[in-house]
């Protein structure tokens, strides 16, 4: 299991740098203030869209935000995020994997993969981190912010 315990610290640091509070970040990223508070308290990690919105708001790497990298890529130009199902199909092929191999070797349930690949469901931050690790790529590459 991936450890995302640095996420609250990174989020707080980025908020302090911008001198913003939870209500402001919530408004700017289209999420609820209580969710931001839960993220800061380490009670929860963001869902897919909120993670992308926060990373875009701070113009930082999602991997940095989640504590998976020590480099924020501050000032980098990130690509617009394509539909996740399409991107996941591309990344699986790019990384020389198959859905079956992800299920068998990396223990992702077939129904979960189907939901992601069909675009009917989006992965959580934890699942994104696990999937990126399984495919040996960054979260930003996985979601299409990096080419």
Short description:
The protein is an all-alpha fold and 147 residues long. The chain has helices at residues 7-18, 22-29, 33-40, 48-58, 62-66, 84-94, 99-106, 110-117, 125-135, 139-143.
Write the layout of secondary structure elements.
Elements: H1 7-18, H2 22-29, H3 33-40, H4 48-58, H5 62-66, H6 84-94, H7 99-106, H8 110-117, H9 125-135, H10 139-143
What does this protein structure show overall?
The protein is built from 10 helices and no strands. The protein has 147 residues and is mainly alpha-helical. The protein has 2 domains: 60 residues, 434 Repressor (Amino-terminal Domain); 60 residues, 434 Repressor (Amino-terminal Domain) (Orthogonal Bundle). Helix 2 crosses helix 3.
The succession of helices and strands, N to C, reads HHHHHHHHHH
Report the biggest beta sheet as strand number plus sense, adding barrel if it closes: none
For the record, what CATH class of the largest domain applies?
Mainly Alpha
Distance between the termini: 26 Å
Helical proportion, percent range: 55-70%
What structural class do the secondary elements suggest? mainly alpha
Report the average pLDDT across residues: 94
Would you report the number of β strands?
0
**CATH superfamily assignment of the largest domain?**
lambda repressor-like DNA-binding domains
What's the number of domains?
2
Key features of this structure:
147 residues; mainly alpha; 434 Repressor (Amino-terminal Domain)
């Amino acid at each position: 299991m991936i450890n995302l315990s640095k996420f609250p610290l990174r989020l707080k640091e980025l908020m302090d740098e911008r001198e913003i509070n939870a209500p402001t970040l919530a408004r700017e990223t289209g999420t609820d203030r209580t969710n931001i508070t839960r993220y800061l308290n380490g009670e929860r990690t963001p869902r897919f869209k909120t993670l992308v919105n926060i990373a875009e708001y701070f113009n930082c790497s999602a991997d940095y935000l989640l504590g998976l990298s020590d480099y924020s890529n501050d000032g980098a130009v990130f690509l617009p995020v394509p539909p996740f199902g399409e991107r996941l199909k591309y990344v699986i092929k790019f990384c020389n994997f198959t859905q079956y191999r992800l299920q068998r070797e990396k223990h992702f349930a077939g129904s979960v993969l189907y939901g992601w690949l069909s675009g009917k469901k989006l992965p959580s931050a934890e699942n994104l981190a696990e999937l990126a690790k399984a495919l040996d790529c960054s979260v930003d590459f996985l979601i299409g912010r990096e080419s």
